[in-house]
Design goal:
The structure is a homodimer.
Chain A: H1 7-17, H2 35-50, E1 54-57, E2 63-67, E3 76-81, H3 94-110, E4 118-123, H4 136-141, H5 147-152, H6 161-167, E5 187-193, H7 198-201, E6 206-212, E7 214-223, E8 227-228, H8 240-258, E9 264-273, E10 279-280, E11 283-292, H9 295-316, E12 319-327, E13 331-332, H10 335-347, E14 352-357, H11 362-366, E15 371-377, H12 393-411
Helix pairs in contact in A: 1-3, 3-12, 8-9, 10-12
C-alpha cells in the first residue's frame, strides 16, 4: 500500500484547530501569546507528541518537534505559525504547520526513516499585529533577537514582549540559548497560502517562491493642537488628523506612482486623540508599512515618505516624529532548493509558477542560516488577513504532497 | 458697605471644583455622568443649598436651585454646565455656574430680595463627547428630548443615555415632567468663556453674544475590504482609510474654500478596523461636525460634504453610509436682553464687543422658550477643549459683575 497525505486527517486537524479563537463572524483571532494562541499551541504540542516527535519549547515559545533520522545529521526543518492577525482566517500559517504534521504521520505510516532527522517548528508571533514586529519566533531562532529587544518591544496595552513571554510560561532570559546557526540546519521548507490573487488568476495550484519582499515600518506621531471645533477658525487650526490624512494619501501615491512597480505601502493603524466629535484632533499616531522585493525601489519609497512627513509638518505647523520599527532586506531564496522543488513538482505532474512573495514569512529569517524553499497554495479571491480568508483543501493537499516529496528528497541528501 | 462679587470666594470655588477629574497633565476630564462629573454635581448641589437655594434635580440630572423673589413670578434663570470634554479644562461651563452661585451669595450678603425669583441651573451633558449629541440637559429642559431618544443614544461602550441616567440615580422615565415652557421663565443669562481668540486679540474683557452657530453632525461608516498589506497590489485594494483621508481633507477644503466665511468643519474622531500594521484597513468610522451662524452657508457645506462622500465611494469602490446625528438651526439671541446688557456694561464702564458664538451652548436651547443673553470672557490663546484652556480671574470677575447687575435688572422687571 502506498501511503500519502490523507485529506481526512488534514481536515480533522483544521476542524480541531478551529476551536481556538474562532469568532461569530466566521473569522479567527489568535493573536500572539493570547489565551487563544496559547491554547492552540498546547493542542499542537500534544498532536506533535502523538506523532512521535521529540518536542522542545524555546525561550520565545517556538515549538520544535524532531523525528530522528538514520544518522545524527543537521535536520530538514519544516515550519510556519499558528498565530493570526485580529479577525483573520484559519489558513495563514496553519496550512504549513498542519501539512508538516501530516508529513510526519505519513512517514510513520510508511515506517520510513530518512537519513536526516526532520523537524517541525511552530514559530511564535509571526504576525506583527501585537508587538509591531513580525516573525519574532524565527528571528529568535536565527539569532536576530536579544534580551534588550524583548524588553523594549511593547504591545498597545504597554506590556513588554519579555513580560508577555514570562506570563505565558516561557523563559525569555534564555534567549541566547535559542538560536541556531548554519551547521545546525540542512534546509528549511515552508508551505503557506499565497495571500494574494496571482495563483487563482492563473488557475495554478502551486507557486514556488523565488524571493520574499521585506518591510520597512514606521511608527509616526503627529502633534498639533486640540481646539474647540466650533470656535476655532479654519485658518488658526493645527489639526493633526488633516496632516495624517495628507500622509495617508501621500503614502498611497508614492507606492502607486513614485516607487517601483511591485512597491506596496499601507497605513494600517491610525489613532486619534482626543478623538471626540467636538474637538479638533491634537494628536495622531499611525503605522506605515512599505514593502518591495527590490531593495532600491523600497529605499526610494522610504525616502519619499520621510520627505513627505517633513513637508507636511512644515506646511501645517505640526510636529511629526517617527521611529523606524524595522528595515528588513528583501531575501532571495535558494536556487538549489528551487531546482529540487521544480523537479519534484514535475515528477508529480503538478503545474506551478515561480513567483515573488509580497508578504514576509519566517522563511525569510531562516534563509540567513540555511537553504530555504517556499511553496504557495492559492488564496480564494486573493483574500487574507480577513475573516473571509479561505484556501481549498484540494489545493492544500497538492501543496502538502509537494512538501512531502521535497522533504524526503532533502532528508536523504 | 457695598457688596459685590468676591474674587476670593470665586477662586476658592474653582480650587474646590478642581478636585473633580483633574489630570496629571494639568487638564480635566469630567465627561457627562462619569464618576468625576457626578462627584462635581454632588459638590455643587451642597454649595447651592449652603447658599440657601431650593434645589431640585430633574429626569436628566439638571440641578436647579431657586432663590425666591418678592413675588411668585417666572424667574430669571442663570446657567451653564460642569461637564468637560476628555482632557479639557476647568473653565468651559464652570465659569457660568460658579459666577451664578457667587451672585446668589452677593444678594444674600446684601439681604436683597429681587422682585422675581432667580434660578441657577447646572445643565447635564452639555458636551457631546460621550453621546455624540450636545446640550442634553437644556434640550430636556426645553422639551426637545423624549424617552425614545434617551433610549436610542449610546456612548462608545454601547451604554444608552437612558441606562446611564438610571445608573446615575436619575429618573429618565419622568422626562416629560422635566420641561419648561415660555410662561415658566422670564429670561435666561449665561456667562461663558469665549473658547476662541477674538476677545484676546481685541484686548476686550467682554463679548456680548448676538447669535450662536449650530452644528450639523454626521456619523460616517466607510467599508472597504481588509487585505494583507504585503500581498495585495495597490490597484486591487479597497482601503477604507485612504477613502476616509480623502474625506477628511475634503471636509477641511469645503469649510475653508467652498462654504461661507464663518463655516468651520471638523472630523473629530476616526476609528480604523482592524487597525493593525499589516492589514489594509477594511472599515473606518468617523464623525463630521459642521457649524455656521448662517443657515444657508451651513447647508451649502453639508450638501458639498454629502456629495463628496458619494464621489469617494464611487471612485474607490467603497461603501460609505452616514447618519445625520443632528441638524440644528443657528440661533439669534434676544435684542431686548442685548440692549439691557449693553446698558449695564456702559454703566460699569466696561469695554465690550458684540460677537457671534461659533460654539453651541445651552443658551441656544433656552432661546426657544425665553429671552436669552450671553456674555463671553476671554480665553487665553483662544484655546479651549484642551488641557491648556485658561481664563484669567480678573476677566471672570468682570463678567460676573456684568452678570450680577444684568440679573438684578431683569429680576426687577
Amino acid at each position: 500500500m502506498y501511503f500519502c497525505c490523507r485529506r481526512d486527517r488534514l481536515e480533522k486537524d483544521f476542524a480541531e484547530l478551529a476551536q481556538f479563537g474562532s469568532l461569530e463572524n466566521g473569522g479567527f483571532t489568535r493573536v500572539a501569546y493570547s489565551l487563544e494562541d496559547l491554547a492552540a499551541r498546547g493542542w499542537l504540542q500534544e498532536k506533535m507528541e502523538d506523532a512521535g516527535l521529540q518536542v522542545v519549547v524555546d525561550a520565545v515559545g517556538n515549538i520544535r518537534g524532531q523525528r530522528p533520522g538514520q544518522e545524527d545529521l543537521p535536520p530538514v526543518m519544516l515550519g510556519s505559525h499558528l498565530d493570526t492577525v485580529p479577525e483573520g482566517g484559519n489558513y495563514d500559517g496553519s496550512v504549513g504547520i498542519l501539512a508538516a504534521l501530516e508529513i510526519i504521520r505519513v512517514l510513520n505510516d510508511r515506517e520510513q526513516v530518512t537519513k536526516r532527522p526532520i523537524e517541525v517548528v511552530n514559530f511564535s508571533a509571526e504576525e506583527s499585529s501585537r508587538f509591531g514586529v513580525a516573525t519574532i519566533g524565527s528571528k529568535a531562532l536565527t539569532g536576530k533577537l536579544d534580551l534588550k529587544t524583548l524588553k523594549s518591544l511593547t504591545d498597545s496595552d504597554g506590556f513588554t514582549l519579555y513580560d508577555t513571554l514570562r506570563e505565558s510560561g516561557y523563559h525569555p532570559e534564555n534567549i541566547q540559548y535559542s538560536s541556531l546557526s548554519r551547521e545546525n540546519v540542512h534546509a528549511f521548507l515552508e508551505l503557506h497560502i499565497e495571500q494574494g490573487p496571482v495563483l487563482e488568476e492563473k488557475e495554478c495550484p502551486i507557486g514556488l517562491v523565488s524571493s520574499i519582499a521585506a518591510p520597512t515600518r514606521f511608527n509616526v506621531v503627529i502633534s498639533g493642537r486640540s481646539d474647540h471645533s466650533g470656535n476655532t477658525p479654519m485658518a488658526m487650526r493645527k489639526d493633526a488628523l488633516v496632516g495624517a490624512s495628507e500622509l495617508v494619501l501621500g503614502v498611497e501615491n508614492i507606492a502607486t506612482e513614485a516607487a517601483g512597480k511591485d512597491t506596496v505601502a499601507t497605513v494600517g493603524y491610525l489613532k486619534v486623540s482626543p478623538g471626540v466629535m467636538n474637538v479638533v484632533p491634537g494628536r495622531v499616531e499611525l503605522g506605515i508599512d512599505i514593502r518591495d522585493i527590490s531593495c532600491s525601489d523600497k529605499n526610494k519609497a522610504v525616502k519619499a515618505v520621510t520627505e513627505l512627513m517633513t513637508q507636511i509638518a512644515a506646511k501645517r505647523g505640526l510636529d511629526i516624529s517617527w521611529k523606524k520599527l524595522c528595515d528588513d532586506t528583501p531575501v532571495e531564496l535558494s536556487k538549489r532548493i528551487m531546482t529540487s522543488l521544480e523537479t519534484v513538482a514535475k515528477q508529480n505532474n503538478m503545474s506551478f509558477i515561480k513567483m515573488p512573495s509580497g508578504a514576509g514569512h519566517d522563511a525569510m529569517n531562516m534563509a540567513s542560516i540555511t537553504d530555504v524553499g517556499m511553496i504557495f497554495v492559492p488564496s480564494v479571491g486573493g483574500v487574507s488577513h480577513n475573516i473571509k480568508e479561505y484556501s481549498r483543501m484540494e489545493d492544500i493537499c497538492i501543496g502538502a504532497k509537494l512538501l512531502l516529496d521535497a522533504t524526503v528528497r532533502l532528508a536523504e541528501e
